[in-house]
């Protein structure tokens, strides 16, 4: 089988990361440790170390995600800053709704996501000029209008989605060709990985995001990290 040629797209990634490092510092990669983010982790750790990385520990992540977090630290020698949710807010939510109250309604699920993800993200982005994500257009119907660059009005900084035009096959070609570590849940049919109680494996032919909040309609399947107002710039 012929190896997929991703050289042109990798070169474009280098050009964009050079631009960010030159014109948008301080910049950070919002690292979920998913397959897409591991492409960016590999490039940034090896070539653009001035770009910082952070991750959000919601308190409900799968063990495999923590294992990968440690592997990244050991292999690349980079410090991924970990942000945690406010303990008092979590205690109040659980007291009012139970530990799994997010299954009861979209409103309660989004409230849980806000506490565990959105509020910590705002702290992570404070004082930054740009943030980078691993989002791709083909991941979900909520992302089909994604652009490579846009101004995040809500967080008041530039937002970059360098892989927005990449296919899933191209992401995995990069990981395999460069021997990049990845979350072992991907080998168990978890194409998109979030909190453990809100993520399940998918069957062949299902949408890559169908395993996230599977009890909801596709149109509501975002946690709030990526639905703020933006001014698009191609």
From TrEMBL:
Keyword set includes Iron-sulfur: yes
Active-site residues (renumbered): 223
Catalysed reactions listed for this entry: [thioredoxin]-disulfide + sulfite + AMP + 2 H(+) = adenosine 5'-phosphosulfate + [thioredoxin]-dithiol
A cellular component annotation (GO) from this entry: cytoplasm
Cofactor(s) this protein cannot do without: [4Fe-4S] cluster
Entry keyword Amino-acid biosynthesis: no
Keywords: Cytoplasm, Iron, Iron-sulfur, Metal-binding, Oxidoreductase
HAMAP family from the UniProt entry: CysH
Function of the protein: Catalyzes the formation of sulfite from adenosine 5'-phosphosulfate (APS) using thioredoxin as an electron donor.
Family (UniProt): Belongs to the PAPS reductase family. CysH subfamily.
Name of the protein described by the UniProt record: Adenosine 5'-phosphosulfate reductase
Gene: cysH
């Amino acid at each position: 089988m012929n190896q997929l040629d991703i050289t042109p797209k990798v070169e474009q990634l280098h050009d964009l990361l050079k631009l960010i490092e030159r014109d948008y510092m301080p910049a950070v990669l919002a690292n979920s440790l998913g397959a897409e983010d591991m492409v960016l982790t590999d490039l940034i750790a090896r070539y653009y170390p001035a770009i910082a990385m952070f991750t959000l520990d919601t308190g409900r992540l799968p063990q495999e995600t923590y294992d990968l977090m440690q592997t990244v630290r050991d292999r690349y020698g980079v410090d991924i800053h970990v942000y945690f949710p406010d303990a008092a807010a979590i205690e109040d939510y659980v007291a009012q709704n139970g530990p799994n109250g997010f299954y009861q309604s979209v409103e309660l699920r989004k409230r849980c996501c806000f506490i565990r993800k959105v509020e910590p993200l705002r702290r992570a982005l404070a004082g930054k000029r740009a943030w980078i994500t691993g989002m791709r257009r083909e991941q979900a119907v909520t992302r089909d209008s994604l652009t490579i660059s846009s101004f995040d009005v809500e967080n008041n900084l530039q937002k970059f989605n360098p892989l927005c035009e990449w296919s899933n096959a191209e992401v995995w070609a990069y990981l395999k060709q460069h021997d990049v570590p990845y979350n072992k849940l991907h080998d168990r049919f978890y194409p998109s990985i979030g909190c453990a109680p809100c993520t399940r494996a998918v069957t062949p032919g299902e949408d890559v995001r169908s395993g996230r909040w599977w009890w909801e309609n596709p149109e509501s399947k975002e946690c709030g990290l990526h639905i703020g107002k933006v001014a698009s710039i191609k």
